[in-house]
Amino acid sequence: MAQIKSPSLFFVTSPRTPFKMRPEIELLVREFAGLKWVSNTTLQASFMERLAQLPEFEGEYNQNNPALSARDRITRGPKALGFVNLDSISLTPAGENFLDGDLSEEALLRQLLKFQLPSPFHKANAKIKKAFCVRPYLEILRLIYTLGRLAFDELCLFGMQLTDWHDFNAIVEGVRQFRIDKEAHKGQYKKFLNDERLRIVAEVFAQEIASGRIQTRESAGASIGKFIKTKANNMRDYADACVRYLRATGLVTVSNPGRTISIIESRRDEVEYILNTVDRNPVFINDVAAYCKHLYSADAPTLLTDDRKTLEAKAVKSAAVDSATDAKTLTANELKRRIKHAQEAQRKAIINAQITELKAFTKYDEVIGVFNDIKAKDVYDPSLALEWNAWRTMTMMDGGNIRANLTFDDAGNPLSTAPGNNADIICDYGDFTVTVEVTLMSGNKQYDAEGEPVARHLGDIKARTGKPAYCLFVAPTINESTISHFYMLHQTKVKHYGGKSVVIPLTLDRFMGMLTQSKNCGYIPSPDKVRAFCEYSMSAASSAEDEEMWYDAISKRADNWLL
What we know:
This protein is of the alpha/beta class. 53% of the residues lie in helices and 9% in strands. The protein folds into 3 domains: 292 residues; 41 residues; 197 residues, Restriction Endonuclease (3-Layer(aba) Sandwich).
């Protein structure tokens, strides 16, 4: 049983993207079904070691204590949301629907609405005097709906205080007053936000501060300033996790580049039904068996789409079926699958419309503005914003079929970054391919994290297409070790990477400059211009005395890449 240790809200943070749980759950129930998870460190370690062998696995795990890493992955998301029963490892009815790709969003939504504090899985620590009485995802969804839009800063400061749903109206008033005060501090928002953050965090954690319990895990010393900063960061992390999971349900969207959260208009009726019908009170707090039966159910709580007439009407409206008569012949799940596929088609149409706008350079100022916001660290999800904006840049900059390995929501806004083992962006120019990899990492971490995967992704593209392929590597700054590594890959044939690897490192400023050149040249650069730039990097590497000379040459060429 996990303990509630903080007087502010918390959410599932592992994994950061909910659908990454699916291969992990599949592995667990496929290879360890019927076994006991709790206190079985041998099994937990075996699971973690098997998981690390899967192609979908990303990141690292504690090889000195793989059981600990396994618990982090299974007891946080899959157990807390009721997808697996760990008493005797098995898939719950809710978990079965979650693993069904066409029903996974709905399954996730039901489980988020049931997540509650307290519960038999989450009891308050004796040191926490604040009473919890809340279904966190439900109340945050209500907060977004009630206010029309919710800025991420507002969610961090006020939404994380919603530990008791009876305080909902007071939280709403707090946000509205914050907005009034913000208008009174125009031009000084960062200072105003910092002052408000210090004030609010000090109020939320007043009990800990008064009792002297201000030492953090990151620091051996006890400092109020350090304590408040740590707690503010924690609240931000939980707010981020909350948004990621709510977005995955398809009910909410985040404006570009992630400043405000709002309800997707086409799903407003579903949200209204949820807010009017789902019980706000936690249930079966001290009854494990009853709580598990409630949590594991695939049918609770009831959603608007569980109503047959509503479902049929939605299928007709979304063009998922040809007529109302056809809708009556299908089962509920068949209708839901068709609606999902129709929504995917509508999403593609929205993205195609965006591409048309981008190719006309109508979004140029916005794209440059997002890049500047990224550099100023003034975006909600900088990694997602960078990947999305790089896709928009390549779409604007030249011809070709430019595909981002992003996922998008129904409003056409970026939802999550590319899954592992894939290039961030793939540009198909017919007889050759260019991949684009982006990162915010700097220093040696950039080389450690990106050096090998970038070359591997490029090699995979070569093998898959059978065509020449090149790569643009974009980051705010380029580390010297990264430059050296990519220079060596130009020179050395590595069979695993499909021969020599042409990976061209570009600072974000130079990448932006290449876009500006495309806008100002008066024509859409042909693929030949792209290929010429990539081949120049090959010739420059052959003639350069060292990596510094090569990097200087390609940087200068990037500044005039259309000449």
